[in-house]
Every structure is written in C-alpha cells, then in structure tokens.
Amino acid sequence: MDGDSRDLRFLKMHGLGNDFVVVDARGRADPVTPALARALGDRRRGVGFDQLAVIRDAGDGADAEIDFWNADGSRAAACGNATRCVARLLMAESGAEALRLRTGRGLLLAEAAGGGLIRVNMGAPQEAWDEIPLARAVELDALPLDVVPGAPPSAVGMGNPHCVFVVADAEAVDLAGLGPRVEHDPLFPERTNVEFVQVIDRETVRMRVWERGGMITQACGSGACAAAVVTARRGLTGRRVNVRLDGGDLGIDWREDGVWMTGPAALVYEGRVAPELMAAPA
Questions:
Q1: Rounded to 10 degrees, what is the CA torsion of 71, 74, 75, 76?
Q2: If we measure between CA atoms, which residue out of 88, 87, 57, 82 comes closest to residue 69?
Q3: Per-residue pLDDT tens for 123-152?
Q4: pLDDT exceeding 90 applies to what percent of the chain?
Q5: What are the catalytic residues?
C-alpha cells in the first residue's frame, strides 16, 4: 500500500501497558499540532495513546530530542516510559548501548540494561514549591488537600508535577473519582499527575496512577520516580525500590546523580495516519 504523500507514519509502543504513539520527525518539519494530538489520542476515532512522543533532530551533544503530548492536546515535559521506548528504537537503529536524549526535563542519559530492559536517568527531583510548580509555598509532605482522610499528600516534580498519596490500600482508592479532583485543584497551576502508593516493605511499593490529561494508566515512569522519592523522603523506604504498577514493575534507584528508572519497552505495530485525520479541525 503506497498511501498518500500526506500520510503520517507512526509506531505504537508501550512500557508496561503505558502506551504511546511515536512519530519520527527527524529531517522534516514537526507535523504535530494540538488538534492532531487530540485526534490521534482518541481511542475510538484515532489511534489511541496515553502519550504521543515526537522524535526530532538535536545538537549540542544529544542523539535526539523528544517532545511529548497528552491525549487532550496539551504538552508534557517528561514521560519516563516513552523515553525508554524511544531509546529502544534509537539503540536498535544505531547499535549504541547508551544515548543522550533531550527532553523538556533536560538532557537524559539512557542505557541498555540487559534482558530487554532500558535504564534512564530522569534527573534530580524538583523539591522547591515553585519548580514543581505549586501555586504557593506549602509543606511539601503535608499538602493542604483533604482528599484522603488521615493521608495528606506530598508534592514533587520530575519535569512534570506529581501529587503522591501514601495510603493503606491502593486497591481500595476511587482512582477515577479522586484523580481528576486532585489534578485540577488550584494548588497545581499546571495541573498534576496523581499517585496513590501503598508501602509493602522498605524495598517495595504498590502504585496506581491518574495521569494529567484525564486518564487512568497502567504505568507511569515519572510517577514511579515521584513515588520512590516521596516514600524515601518520608522515611518509609530506602532510595532503591521496586514499584508495582497495574502493568508490571519498574525499578527505581534515587542516586546522587538523579533518579534512575529501569523497565521494558515494547514495539506493537507500525502504521500510517490517513490524510483525513491529519486534517483534523482545531
């Protein structure tokens, strides 16, 4: 099938069920607009994704640059699972065992970790209220949000904002009800991802996540990093933890040089977006 010259080629990938459309825009103008991101993100009328990742040319010591879009057409500065997916593609293409990828989070180092796993340094956590960002200065581990009785949440930034609740039972949380309520709270001027975390032991936590942009996802790489930072900061775990998500496990290691995340990345299929979807109205 030769297709139309206006067709857009893409890859569908996932990291632990956190699924992505990946567009390679190297050597060409970036084709993605907010309207196209919304059209592609529609799971009934488009392709469907948790995030859209656009690979672009980069200089200044980076192997590539990645832009991230949410399904509602908004932009995201960070997406850990999508970064691993793009790293897998570029490693397979170049044969490299390590890459430097520029994102809104900065220049991230990605490495092959063996056994089909990819490891990414997501950078140091943002622990100043105005960097996360929050609307005002508050105690980061006792946010003034009366959402879960007896469980004031914590805030941390991983290139995107996170609100982390430590709860007795993550399975019992009304994720669909509480997630959007917290996401849109005025304390978060750029909205927020929302994680509900249950501490199993000092090396293991269970996490469920509501992602900014309006969805429950099976995994969230930056959210897993945020959960590990918060539980370590509060003295509930060590700095190296296994995060159990709906889609599988991520290994998180908060080191002096940043928060390292290790997990799988899978290619599902390749496709083309037809011209009529490319012309989606704003």
A1: -60
A2: 82
A3: 999 999 999 999 999 999 999 999 999 899
A4: 88
A5: 79, 220
